[in-house]
Amino acid sequence: MATIGVGTKDEVRKIVYEFFSEECEVSPDELNDGVNIINDLEGDSLMFLELLEIFKKKYNLNVELKTVGKYIVKHPAVTIGEIIDMTLLIIEHENRLADLE
To answer: Is 1 part of a structural domain of the chain?
Structure first.
């Protein structure tokens, strides 16, 4: 579990934007927090899994995919901003994510 500070938020935002820019072959300038990953970028849910693996390694997270999946079913994340928020929650709460409502 990590403490979320301004530096972490900025770093997560930068990584998410770079990831979707590269994966979807769009300029980072075309991205904003309201961009819908599926409708606007023609992305898919597997991209989030790839992104999750990046953050698991970077922050040495102990979080199971099953836990994240249960949370996402109740709290879908479809925009870049929602993905950033979800990532910050995962970093902060790891497997306790399922306990959040």
So the answer is: no
Asked if residue 13 belongs to a domain, the reply is yes
Distance (Å, whole) CA 38 – CA 46:
11
Q: Check: CB of residue 25 under 8 Å from CB of residue 1.
A: no
Q: What is the pLDDT of residues 4-55, one digit of tens each?
A: 888 999 999 999 999 999 999 999 999 999 999 999 999 988 899 999 999 9
Q: Angle of helix 65-74 relative to helix 45-58, nearest 10 degrees?
A: 130
Q: Is the pTM of this model over 0.85?
A: yes
Spatial distance between the Cα atoms of 39 and 66, rounded to a whole number of angstroms: 25
* Domain around 69: 6-99
Look at the alpha carbons of 76, 38, 80, 23 in this order and tell me if their dihedral is positive or negative: positive
